[in-house]
Amino acid sequence: MSNNKNQPKEKSGGRIRIIGGKWRSRKISFREAPGLRPTGDRIRETLFNWLGINIDGAHCLDLYAGTGILGLEALSRGASTCTALENNPTVIKQLHVNRDQLEADLSIITADSIKFLQHKNSGRVFDIVFVDPPFSKTLHTESCGLLESNGWLAPDALIYCELPAKGNLFATPPSWRIEKDKIASGVRYMLYSRIESGA
Length: 199
Hints:
The chain has a single domain, classed as Vaccinia Virus protein VP39 (Rossmann fold, 3-Layer(aba) Sandwich). About 35% of the residues are buried. The strands form two sheets. A seven-stranded mixed sheet has the order 5-4-3-6-7-9-8, with helices on both faces. A two-stranded antiparallel ribbon has the order 1-2. With about 200 residues, the protein is of the alpha/beta class. It starts with 12 loop residues before the first strand and ends in a 5-residue tail after the last strand. Strand 8 (about 175-185) and strand 9 form a beta hairpin. The chain has helices at about 40-50, 70-75, 90-100, 115, 140-150; strands spanning about 15, 25-30, 60, 80-85, 105-110, 125-130, 155-165, 175-185, 185-195.
């Protein structure tokens, strides 16, 4: 480690605000980690406008929780529960702090999301799922395929996906239909719905 006093200090994290609902304008802290990229205000506002009344009472799954902002925003706006998956110990520690400060019904599971989804689901299904993995990895296709094939989704589930604007599109299950698709600030973000069999 260099002892040069002029060397820039390593950033330790930052703060991001919840933009709607009962915790509107409350700020949460986050720790920097590889691949961690909080979803910005503009994109989040659009996303939750898309979700509209579907957020009320919903059971949500945040596959790559990171800062936890998507799940906490959902809970702030009326979701019933949110399960957050994360495998970075430093990030998980901060997630617990944020949850406790807000007294949020956020269930935090320390897990690799792909390994978690590889198990057949025998419990609660999810109404809304956030799929926002690190952009440096190609996890969208596998995540979405496992969500569908292993029974994690409610019949009318909505699935939000976020990826680089210039990245290659990923494969989604044939039972999914794209509802919304936008690009902002170098990010492509999409909302999918499930199509009922025979529809």
